[in-house]
Amino acid sequence: MKRLFLFSTLLVFLFSSVSADELYEVNYNIIPLPKEVKTDPSKKVFFMLKEGTGICYDQSNAECTRIAQFLKEWTKEATGLTLQLTPDDKNAMIQLRLVSPAAPKGKKSKKPVALTEQQKESYTMKVTEKGVELTAYEPVGLFRAAQTLRKCLPERPDLGMMPYVEITDQPRFTYRGVMLDCARHFFSVEFIKQFLDVMALHGCNQFHWHLTEDQGWRFEVKALPDLAVKGSVREKTVIGPSRMRIYDNIPYGGYYTQEECREVVRYAAERYINVVPEIDMPGHMQSALHVFPNLGCTGGPYPVAPHWGVMRDVLCGGNPETLTFLKTVFGEICDVFPSPYIHIGGDECPKERWQKCPKCQAKIKELGLTDESNVKVEGGDTRGSQDGRSPENKLQSYINHEIEQFLASRGRSLIGWDEILAGGLTEDAIVMSWRGTKGGVAAAKQKHRVIMSPNVYAYIDHPQLKDYGKQPRTTDSYIVSCSKIYSFEPLVPEELSGEEGDYILGVQANLWTEQVAYPEHALYQLLPRLASMSEVQWCNPEQKDFENFKTRLPRLEKLYDRIGVVYCPEIE
Q1: Shortest CA distance to 522 belongs to which of 510, 536, 511?
Q2: What's the number of domains the chain is made of?
Q3: Are 495 and 164 in contact (CB under 8 A)?
Q4: Which of 68, 365, 419, 490 gives the lowest tally of CB atoms within 10 Å of its CB?
Q5: Looking at the structure, do residues 521 and 467 belong to the same domain, yes or no?
C-alpha cells in the first residue's frame, strides 16, 4: 500500500510539474509511421526510465551486442541517463530478444520458416509496467526496433514515463535508398558516416554511392594508379550556371582509397545499410579519358570536365581496350564492395562520336546490329541519347551485356539508369527509373526488377521551397517539396497489375551535387525531405496522410537538433 501511494505521488508530481506540450514528448508519433501502434488509455500503465536501467541481450551474438550498445548511446544522447548492459534478464527492464518465426497454423515442419525480406526487418516493441521488450526474427529487425525506441525517447529524464504500447512493424519495400553524388563534389569519409547515420534514422537500407563523373574520378583502382591520382583533379570549376562558363580557376580534387571504401562499407553494414557503388559508363567518363585518351573515339586530349552537363566525349564502343578497362575497374569494385548490386550508370551517353568513329561502326557491322530507330522506346524522354533502337544504342547494350555477364560471374546484379532500355534490356538488369516512372513501368512489364527514382519526386538537389530566397542556391528549375515527395506512389496502380507491381523493389532519393559543395548544404537538401521519402519507402499507401505527417515532424526535427544535423526549417 505504501509503495502504491509513493508511485501515485510520483505520477502526480511529474504530471503537475511539466506543461501539456512537454508531456506530449512521451508518445509514439514517429517517422516513418509503424504499421500498427496499439495503446490502451484505460490502462494507467507506465514504464519509468531511470539511471542504471538494465539492457539485456544475447552477449554471444555480436550483432545484438552492437545494437544494445547503440541503444545505450542513444538513450544517453536523449535523456542523459546511463543504462547498463547486462546478461541478467531477470532484473533488466529493457529486453532485446531474437525469436524464431512460427510455422503457419495447421502446419508442422522441422525446417526453418523461410522469411521474406520484409519479415527479416520486422519487429515488435512492447512497453508494460515491467519494462520494454524488443523482439525480432533477425538482428536487422532488432536494429529497426531500437531506432523506433530511440525516436520515442523523451528529451529529459524526468519526462521518462513511457505509456503502455504494442508496436508491430515491417517495411513495405525491400530497397529503400539514397544516392549521394561524390564525383561532382567530394565529401569526406567522416561526412559520409554522418550521412549513413541519418539514413539509418529514417529506415533506409541502400546507400547508392556515385563515385565517377566527367568532373572527377573518386575510386582508387590499384591496377591503374593514375586513374584516381590524375582523374580526380579538375583544374577549375564553373561558378554559377554552366552556360555562362565563368570559372574559379582553383584546382579541385579528392578520391577514396580502397581502404577508405572498405571502412565506409563496414560502418554502413553495422547500421544495416548496403553500399551500392556506381561507376558511370560508357558516358560521363571524361575524367577517365583524361588519363587514358586512347579509350576515346577522337584520341583527345580530354580535360577533367570543369563544368556540368552532358559531354559528347564518351568511351569508344568499338575499341576492345574499353571492355578490358571496364572489367579491370569493375573487378576491383567487386573486390571492395560486397553489395549484391553494382550500378553501371548507362545514362546520358551521346552517340555522335560513335556515329562517326570507324572503330564503333566496324564493331556495329561485326555484331550485325541493325537500325530499328523507328521502334518506339518506352521510358520517358531521350535526353542525352537517340530515340529508338539505333545501331549505336544497341552497341551500348552490347557493352552493358558484357559487363552484366562479368558481374554475374562475381555473383552480382547490374543496375542501370533507365536509358539502358533504349537498345533492349539485358537478361537480369535492374532498371533505376529516373526520367519519370515510364521506364520503370516498361521494365516491370518486361519482368525486370525496378527501383523507382523519378526526378520530379526524388531529386533532392532541386529546391524544396517556392521562395528561392529562403534556401541556398541550387538547381534552378522545378520544386521538389516535402508534400510532392510524400504524394508519390511507386507502384503506379493505373499502369501495373498486382503481379507486375511485384517487380518494383523500392524507391530512392537522389542528391546530385553540381550546386552542393559542402556537408551542411548536403544535409539541408536532404532534410526533412528524407522524412517524407521514408514514409513512401516504409508505409503502405493507406497509412499516409501528409497533414498527420506534419504534426509528427517537429518531434523528429528535435532529434535532428540533438544530433547536430542541418535541415530546412520550413516545409511545403
Answers
A1: 511
A2: 2
A3: no
A4: 365
A5: yes
